[in-house]
């Protein structure tokens, strides 16, 4: 049986963010891309709600020995799940993960209604602004013009900012790969260095000319680094 790989998107991310990873790894792994229920109405803490969702997803699918790959907020969820259930996670992969520090200047843009402004802020996510395609900008713009979704995004961002994981990281025994863009303006390279310092079994690979979402901006390099990590004993 193929090993399961779960791909967790970020706050403004979607399932399409992982297209390059899916195409590369699906012949050898069972790929799962659960849509994180960021917009759900629910009582209690928002980030905790996502962790419980992931727990229920993995349990209901009967998954064991999983590879968890998380970008941005998805990385944060992966960290919290792995800390609680290390026996379920074979490898942890974080790219541009929140949990230590995140540039919250991006948090203002859900409130803006200007398409040009949204394009500028989406482009800010990447090293190469051309990565912010018309389709991607339109998807984010559609979200930001929905008042209910905007409210849930702001609440989720605040929950993530409150949830500081530095104290948990030394207690995560899982072998971890950090894939980071050297030009990440949201979670800068020094954040990656701090993750590597605090996680007992972490290795860090920095990608040049790359921003906050390496799997989108440099999919071939991302896949090569991840493949090498997964092939190690």
Automatic annotation (TrEMBL):
Domain AB hydrolase-1: 6-224
SUPFAM superfamilies, A to Z: alpha/beta-Hydrolases
Molecular function per GO: hydrolase activity
Alphabetic keyword roster: Hydrolase
Entry coiled-coil feature ranges: none
Pfam families: Abhydrolase_6
Domain of life: Bacteria
Keyword match Hydrolase: yes
PANTHER family: HYDROLASE ALPHA/BETA FOLD FAMILY, PEROXISOMAL MEMBRANE PROTEIN LPX1
Protein name: Alpha/beta hydrolase
Source organism: Chitinophaga eiseniae
């Amino acid at each position: 049986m193929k090993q399961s790989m779960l791909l967790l998107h970020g706050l403004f991310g979607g399932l399409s963010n992982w297209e390059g990873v899916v195409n590369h790894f699906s012949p050898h792994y069972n790929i799962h891309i659960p849509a994180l229920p960021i917009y759900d109405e629910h009582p209690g803490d928002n980030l905790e709600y996502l962790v419980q969702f992931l727990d229920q997803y993995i349990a209901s699918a009967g998954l064991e020995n999983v590879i968890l790959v998380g970008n941005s907020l998805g990385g944060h969820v992966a960290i919290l799940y792995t800390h609680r259930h290390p026996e379920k996670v074979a490898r942890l992969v974080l790219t541009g993960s929140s949990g230590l520090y995140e540039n919250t200047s991006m948090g203002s843009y859900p409130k803006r209604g200007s398409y040009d402004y949204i394009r500028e802020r989406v482009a800010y996510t990447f090293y190469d602004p051309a990565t912010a395609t018309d389709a991607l900008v339109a998807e984010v713009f559609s979200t930001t013009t929905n008042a209910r979704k905007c409210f849930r995004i702001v609440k989720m961002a605040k929950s993530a900012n409150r949830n500081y994981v530095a104290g948990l990281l030394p207690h995560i025994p899982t072998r971890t790969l950090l894939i980071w863009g050297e030009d990440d303006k949201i979670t800068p390279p020094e954040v990656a260095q701090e993750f590597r310092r605090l996680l007992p079994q972490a290795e860090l690979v920095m990608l040049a000319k790359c921003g906050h979402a390496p799997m989108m901006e440099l999919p071939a390099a991302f896949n090569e680094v991840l493949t090498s990590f997964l092939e190690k004993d």
